[in-house]
Amino acid sequence: MSQTPLSMYDASIPVFIRYLNNLSTILDKGVAHAKEQGIDPQELLDTRLVADMDALPAQIQRASDAAKGCGARLAGLEVPSFADDEATFADLQERIAKTIGFLKTIRPEQLEGSESRAIEIKMRTGPISFDGKTLLLSFSMPNFFFHVTTAYDILRHKGVPIGKNDYLGPR
């Protein structure tokens, strides 16, 4: 049986979309829990795990940034800029939907050869250079999953009844 090698597209875009959809479902469960328990949803939005970590909205924003930034860079596109002004669960859902919408515009052929593409990211501390494979596996994916996990952990910490299967999503 002949198998097709794993492509950069398959290792990135569908993974980002899947976990952004899972994150959307987790946020819905957070809103439902707040309603059921008579909790002001703002309490969930303002929660951070420790004082020096960002609150829930920033976790969603950074997951979005990691996904759209990686997809765009691997495809050789301009990274879409979002304002980071989400203040409600509806705003966060819109951010996730816009990110998924952008990712769905990226075609597999746009990522062909991207594993060796030279990519530079301008950071506050100065530029960082990667090849596409290193960007995906050592920078973007770890950042993406860190922020998705932290968002999950914030809601779990606040008593939202979610578990590993919510994080992993439907199979």
From TrEMBL:
It comes from the Bacteria. This is DUF1993 domain-containing protein. The lineage of its organism: Bacteria, Pseudomonadati, Pseudomonadota, Betaproteobacteria, Burkholderiales. PANTHER family: BLL2446 PROTEIN, DUF1993 DOMAIN-CONTAINING PROTEIN. InterPro entries: DinB/YfiT-like, DUF1993. Signal peptide: none annotated.
